[in-house]
Amino acid sequence: MAAPEQPAPVPPVPPLPAAPSVRPAPCPPSAQPGRPVRSTRRTRPGRRTRPGRPGRPGGPTRPPSGQPRVAPARLRGAVVVGAGAVALGWGVQARPSARLDAVFASGAHLTGLLAGYGVLVMLVLMARVPAVEHGVGADRLARWHARGGRHVLGLVAAHGLLALCGYTVHTGADLVAAVGGLLGYPWIAAACVGALLFAAVGVTSARAVRGRIRHETWRRLHLLSHLAVAAGFAHQLAGPDLADNVLTAWIWSMAHATVAVVLVWYRIIVPLRRALRHDLRVAEIVEEGPDTVSVLVRGKGLAELRAEPGQFFRWRFLQHGLRSTALPFSLSAPVRDDTLRITVKALGDHTRRVRRLRPGTRVVATGPFGALTAHRRTRRKVLLLAGGVGITPLRALFETLPGGPGDLTLLYRASNADSLVLREELEDIARKRHAALHYLLGRSDDAYNPLAPSALHHLVPDLTAHDVYLCGPPAMARAATTSLIRAGVPAGRIHSEDFSHA
Question: Would you say the C-alpha torsion 280, 342, 495, 148 has a positive or negative sign?
């Protein structure tokens, strides 16, 4: 395949102020003169320390665990055990029969119960329970929610089809008459409406559709799915599996009540209580570039939030055009003096309105969330790899991750020098910490790929000895992950989180 046409050379990145510990790094040999790869590299003074155990000099230092965390494996195990318990409960009540209508009915009962259980799991995954979000990570929870939603829709469809087949065989009616007969039962009709709502949520969540509809439309449909859950619950209570067994009906009702309480508590009560307690308000809007601003939010007693670098909040700014949506933005600096800072690039209607926020605007912030923190670290050396505005959580980690001279390296991918965000801060941090900082400039369709395995090894010769924290646009993150794995970095040491749709 022919190589793409050579673009015009990108203007060189202006040199840093002269300092004894700063020198420009050479471009990779494979890069042609004028190619869009420019970097600044810090020298690494001081004696190199040998890797040690966590908590000892030279080893990765983990911060004290101030937040409870549910491990992903433990959560997966709990979900599987719960599904097994549901299946066991169905099996205890099942009455074996060779009759065809009984076989269809038994299958309908099992798939219906598993679908109901799956719906509860989907709600818990998105309930914003701090221990779950901190331990599993928002992006992984979103992926599990999406994958589990497809399974739930499949179970709902199977339940409906098996019930229809069983009723048709039992009554001897034709298909059209059987459908009319089933819809004559009120709770079955309600369940059909709920199934249609679930289907609408599933269709609008598909990747091909999601990008074509407004975010508000998608979120309202998701809110309507709670009505579908209520309709399904009423349908289940009227069914023979629960109606004929008081204990099973009580357990099922308590499970639904518990999930409802968790949802109301963490998605409504906790945010409102924190808004009143911490009195968050916009303090200042700082221009960081042509389409990027930093928002400083000041409050009271923010240390109580125990927000860690790398985490994010869901921000609801109580100003016209923004109050209806909670926007996920990561902290772009550690919490200082009861001030939180986020850095926002204008990429859509809501993010463009952020730059028009007025000082004094009240803010409701839910969080902190996310697992892209120092707790994931397993190695003394750390590579931070950012793309675009994905630099924001990594900038906070760049400043705060424990490490000596030469332990930290930051690679910042951007289309051109004007797109670099928080540049002066990054260079100041790199200089003070004797860390390496490289700017990888150029368009994504350029012939030279600065994220290719060979280019990464040139910039970070001991790449395989690093933990990698990765944050950037989805396409860039996928390409970078592939390159890192090909370069020899184990997948378990590549830590990333995409909360753009969290």
Answer: positive
* SS3 of residue 140 by DSSP: helix
CA 409 to chain centre: 24
Mean pLDDT of 267-280: 88
Average pLDDT, stretch 44-60? 36
Give the DSSP letter string of 296-313.
Answer: EEE-S-GGGG---TT-EE
Q: What is the pLDDT of residue 499?
A: 53
The pLDDT of residue 345? 87
Model confidence at 128: pLDDT above 90 = no
Q: Stretch 225-236: mean pLDDT, rounded?
A: 84
Q: What is the dihedral of CA 121, 215, 388, 436, to 10 degrees?
A: -30
Residues with Cβ within 8 Å of 214's Cβ and at least 6 positions away in sequence, in order, are none
The secondary element (H helix, E strand) that includes residue 408 is strand 408-414
Buried b / exposed e over 221-245, threshold 16 CB at 10 Å, is beeebeebbebbbebbeebebbeee
Which value, to the nearest 10 degrees, does the dihedral of the CA atoms of residues 479, 485, 490, 492 take?
A: 20
Whether 351 contacts 344, CB under 8 Å: yes
Compute CA distances 281 → 61, 286, 343, 499, whole Å. Answer: 34, 15, 16, 23
The radius of gyration of the chain's CA atoms, rounded to the nearest angstrom, is 27
CA-to-CA separations, 287 to 108, 302, 344, 345, in angstroms, rounded: 59, 24, 10, 10
Mean pLDDT of 457-485: 90
Model confidence band, residue 54 (pLDDT cutoffs 50, 70, 90): very low
pLDDT band at 66 (very low <50, low <70, confident <90, very high): low
Q: Which long-range contacts (CB under 8 A, 24 or more apart) does 141-147 make?
A: 141/502, 142/498, 142/499, 142/501, 142/502, 146/205
Closest by CA position to 366, among listed 270, 235, 296: 270
Long-range contacts of 481-486 (CB under 8 A, 24+ apart): 483/451, 483/452, 483/453, 483/456, 484/385, 484/453, 484/456, 486/453
Residue in 331, 336, 108, 51 with CA at minimum distance from that of residue 241: 108
* 272 to 267, 312, 364, 365, 367: CA distances (angstroms): 9, 18, 7, 9, 12
Residue 462 and residue 381 in contact, taking contact as beta carbons nearer than 8 Å: yes
SS3 383: strand
Model confidence at 32, pLDDT cuts 50, 70, 90, reads very low
Strand-strand pairing, 38-42 and 22-24: antiparallel
Element (H, E) at 241: helix 240-243
Mean pLDDT rounded to a whole number for the chain: 80
Q: Which of 26, 42, 13 is nearest to 431 (CA)?
A: 42
Integer CA distances (angstroms), 328 to 125, 400, 468, 486, in order: 17, 22, 23, 31
% helix / strand / coil in the chain, to the nearest 5? 50, 15, 35
